[in-house]
Amino acid sequence: MDILKLIGRDRPLFAQDVKQHEVELLELVSSSRFLVIGGAGSIGQAVAREIFKRNPKVLHVVDISENNMVELVRDIRSTLGYINGDFHTFALDCGSREYQALINASGGYDYIFNLSALKHVRSEKDPFTLMRLIEVNILNTLSTIAQARNTGTRKYFCVSTDKAANPVNMMGASKRIMEMFLIRESLTLPISTARFANVAFSDGSLLHGFNQRFSKRQPISAPSDVRRYFVTPQESGELCLMSGLLGDNRDIFFPKLSEQLDLVRFSDIAVRYLHCLGFEPHECASEDEARDRAAELIARKQWPVYFFASDTTGEKDFEEFYTDAETLDMQRFDAIGVIKNEPVIDEARLEHFLQRITEIRAGSTWDKPEIVELFNYMIPDFRHKETGKYLDGRM
Q1: Helix, strand, coil % (nearest 5) of the chain?
Q2: Whole-model pTM over 0.85
């Protein structure tokens, strides 16, 4: 199935930029040692593949998902084969003692790519998963940066999100706060990052759910009023690699908007997806109808779909990669824009965040409002959209 056609495009976004800088990328990768954190996720796997195919001296991959790590190895062996360098995977939590021991034994890495993240808006529905989101997206980032600095890492890359620009949900706000800390950490270690759109068919995404629903012969459900930008997994890997290797300190890379990158409705992708598989979508009036008629409709080569208007917490009305207050370089690359950041740091605000999170975590249990209050302090114009409804309440 052609992902590009499903998301309404006819060619890759970054082919020209990758081709133009391929010699430099190849030289940097083939002479360097790499660690990819969160390398078993969809973006992490894409980054690992981009590094692997340029023959690094060392490529170590860390992730807590043992099964996805196995699939990463099988996928690479089945397509790219082998390299002369050292390629190993480790089923570890980057916040663990085991990870620290690996770092101590590794001899150091030239480049560390941190792709670990809790990325779902639904993760903010309760204070416990939300605290885990803060730990992964902010606190573990700070600890792995400190370890990188102590072991002589040349460059640290950490993925952000388009939802960090004028955030309306806690996930996006956590990444915006992470970016604020990255500016401070960049004073002692070169750091770059990237914001980009939804990665089409990435693990756990709505489009990935289409595959799951189809294989299980279940209805497909999607919002009819939510429009998003999409990149392919390979494009996400290319953008991260370009930022990590070619980005200046504090740079944030993002895809330029063009006729090739336009907003697409999830419901439209669902229709194209079913057509590609030889089915005609049959729009149902409710979840109940879609469930009840699934077997009947599928037998007639029709697939039950339920399209709805979005009303859940944290859904952003539109996507953006940068704000009016940010300085842009739109000339360096063909399809990549760059946000240029000065080292402007509010030390008191950052320290207050760490102190307050420590205080909250020390409690026997937590409440979401106190965490939201802290996020509002960190981002005064944070426009959190709380509707009381969450994606777990939908099919």
Answers
A1: 45, 15, 40
A2: yes
